[in-house]
Amino acid sequence: MNRIGIIVFAGVCVLFVTSWFLKGSVGDATMTEGFLITLSAFLTLAIMSFLYKDNPYYKFAEHLFVGVSAAFWMTMGFWSTIVGNLIPRISDSLGAWFLQPKGEINYFFLLPIFFGFLLLMRLAPKGGWLSRWPLAFIIGTTAGLNFVRYLRSDFINQISATFVPLVVDWQGFGHFFGNLSLSATGPLVAMVGNFVIFGGVICGLIYFFFSKEHTGWFGTASRIGIWVLMVTFGASFGYTVMGRISLLVGRLTFLLRDWLELMT
């Protein structure tokens, strides 16, 4: 570490200790609460420091987050899957030792234990090939189960959602024009929306139809399909960005309100 890095590190340590004691001595807060608030604030700033450039503080916060997350989910997996689901089904004595309710003994659960040990062979210098068998079984089973689920949610349900009535609550021209309304729940707005869905789906499908040259009315429909796709992708991207912005607002609120107390 060069001289500038040492000076910056010393300044960060001084600011951390100062914030710790200030937050721990204000009001009814304890030193533990002050330490946790200060640590959260400095880790947030360490992650945000990547906007300037890659630096050791960002790497430390990143590695700490990944390590703590991995340890947390490993612990949750052990207590929920192994202790809560596996042990009571293979041994009553072990289940009682872990204070788990007695379950029905099923030695079929020994099979995932065997596969689990084979997966750990990935860490062995000469036994890595043994981990391919359980890994292939996991990937194949997951792909088969998710195929049916995604076929239902991302294919069948989306196709069913496009089967919308083009004429909503039709009771004749007199009734339609006599009760004409621009209300969001009215039949006019519903019909316009259904026509947009119908036309957008047809034009989007025409864009991906390459067996016919995209000229004339077919080309016009194809270009409309491009606009429909771009609007859809833009809306999806905007929704994702807004989700990330809400996370940023939450962290900025924490820094300004809970740490610096500049907001009420």
Q: Give the termini distance in whole angstroms.
A: 40 Å
Using the CA coordinates, give the radius of gyration. Answer: 30 Å
Task: Briefly note the structural class of the backbone.
Answer: mainly alpha
Mean pLDDT: 90
Low-confidence parts, pLDDT < 50 over ≥5 residues? none
H/E element sequence: HHHHHHHHH
- Helical fraction: over 70%
Q: How many β strands by DSSP?
A: 0
Helix segment count?
9
Number of domains: 3
Which percent range describes the beta-strand content?
A: under 5%
- Largest sheet features: none
The outline comes out as extended
Structure description:
- This protein has 264 residues and is mainly α.
- Helix 2 (31-48) packs antiparallel against helix 9.
- The mean pLDDT is 90.
- It is built from nine helices and no strands.
- It is extended.
- It folds into three domains: 3-104, no CATH class; 106-161, no CATH class; 163-259, no CATH class.
- It starts with a helix and ends in a 5-residue tail after the last helix.
Notable features of this structure?
3 domains, 9 helices, single chain, 0% strand, 264 residues, mainly alpha, 73% helix
What's the short story on this structure?
This protein has 264 residues and is mostly helical. The chain is 73% helix and 0% strand.
Question: What secondary-structure arrangement, pairings included, does this model have?
Answer:
Elements: H1 3-24, H2 31-48, H3 56-90, H4 92-97, H5 110-120, H6 132-161, H7 173-178, H8 187-207, H9 216-259
Helix pairs in contact: 1-2, 2-3, 2-9, 5-6, 8-9
